[in-house]
């Protein structure tokens, strides 16, 4: 399942997609700790799309809700304000983590 693809109808009229990455998200929900997921950037926001038992689950984040994006060892991290913490993505199978981090970082500096 390609989780980096979103329907153009989901975008605002002035919004354009940016870099996207897909891999394994390390996040605990119930007894499960690994999910296939993607981060899709746009000019306005970032969309997290996760495969939850063959169902697409999307969550949208404002760039103001992201503290930083960075690589540590072999994992891509998104850090959020206190309470949510960090989410790691490993085993990236699609997209460039460097392009993703550069794009997100540029949005954090200007927003």
Structure commentary:
This protein is mainly β and 111 residues long. It has one domain: Pleckstrin-homology domain (PH domain)/Phosphotyrosine-binding domain (PTB) (PH-domain like, Roll). Helices cover 13% and strands 53% of the residues. The protein contains one helix and seven strands. The protein has one helix at residues 97-110, and strands at 17-29, 32-42, 45-52, 55-62, 68-72, 75-79, 86-94. β5 (68-72) and β6 form a beta hairpin. The longest helix is centred in the last third of the chain and has 14 residues, at 97-110. The radius of gyration is 13 Å and the shape is globular. This is PH domain-containing protein. It comes from Lacicoccus qingdaonensis.
Brief summary of the model shown:
This protein is mainly beta. The protein is 13% helix and 53% strand. The chain has one domain (8-105): PH-domain like (Roll).
Structural descriptors:
seven-stranded antiparallel beta sheet, mainly beta, 1 helix, PH-domain like, 111 residues, PH domain-containing protein
């Amino acid at each position: 399942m390609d989780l980096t693809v979103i329907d153009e109808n989901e975008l605002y009229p002035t919004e354009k997609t940016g870099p996207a990455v897909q891999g394994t998200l390390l996040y605990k929900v119930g007894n499960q700790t690994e999910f296939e997921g993607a981060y899709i950037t746009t000019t306005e926001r970032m969309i997290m799309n996760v495969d939850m038992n063959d169902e697409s689950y999307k969550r949208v984040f404002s760039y103001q809700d992201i503290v930083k994006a960075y690589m540590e060892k072999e994992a891509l991290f998104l850090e959020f304000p206190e309470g949510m913490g960090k989410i790691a993505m490993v085993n990236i199978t699609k997209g460039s983590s460097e392009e993703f981090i550069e794009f997100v970082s540029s949005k954090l500096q200007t927003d």
